[in-house]
Amino acid sequence: MRIRVVRPGELDDGEADSWRELRAKSGAPASPFMEPEFTLAVAGVRQDARVAVVEDEGVPAGFFPYQKGPFGHGRAIGLGVSDCQGAVLRPGLRLSARELLRACSLSVWEFDNLEAGQDLFGPGSAEEFVSPVIDVGEGYAAYERRLREQSPKFLRTTMAKERRLGRQAGEVRFVFDERDPSALRTLMAWKSAQYRRTGRRDRFAREWISALVRRLHDTRAPGCSGVLSVLYAAERPVAAHFGLRSRTVLACWFPSYDTAYARYSPGLILHLRMAEAAAAAGIGMLDLGRGAAEYKDALKTGELRVHEGSSTRPGPGAALHRLSREPGRRAHSFVRRRPRLAGYAQRTLGRIGRLRGD
Questions:
Q1: Domains (ranges, CATH) in the chain?
Q2: How are beta strands 125-135 and 285-287 bridged, if at all?
């Protein structure tokens, strides 16, 4: 077995095809974050992107995308915005995490959305989280029937608000795959304001994330395409979402809306229309992403599992990582597991957001 490390752009077409074939054989949901196009997009905006190519008897048997930092500190590719992480390996490949990290000159590899089934890194998982999903594999009508059974008031209220939006604000129109870049700029402005309003760090203030989203909006590949969905009222955008799709999965990523229309719940209307359009396009699942939210609880039909933690190789670099990262991680976990503390933290973030607004 041989492991060589390259920049993503140095992969040839044959290697990219091997990556896709190995991923298709994994049996895992076809997340667009695990396709070579996502890694290539990250490499276009970050100089630290790398891929370890695992060869067995001269044949590609695995691909491990990551970002390499100082002191041997590695991170999942796109850490902070990637909702599905891990290595793409041939089933049954005899490889250990320690071997892989050594070949990459890494003492630690950090992840926050490691997909279930990544047994190579499983022992390093610090905590498990759920990622709610919407199953539309049997069509939107079947999903809507399920919603009526599990939360009839939610569906009835949301549909009534959509009709009211049309009467009071103008004709409602939905576009599943909007190509107008001005609509993307509008969404990013809404999302930045939402981050500030809720006391959170504005992701779009980081240039590499903004550039990555713009780059992915222009990416059109069967396994990874940017999809901008927009809900209009009287030809004015009132809610929008940018995500990534493969043939069978829509990864929900950046949703937001115009707060002037908040009383109509345009974000919920948008998600229902997205589910309908996704089903019509042959997509079987919408992955709403890790994190608790009322709208996810109302819309979901099931859950995936993801993990947060790190895989380490013994040495001073791993010890430094534990000293710098683990206390904060444990503190966050302590708060998350206690609803009263979590509620207090949420209210504090809201107050910080209001102070920013003032």
A1: 132-304 (3.40.630.30)
A2: antiparallel
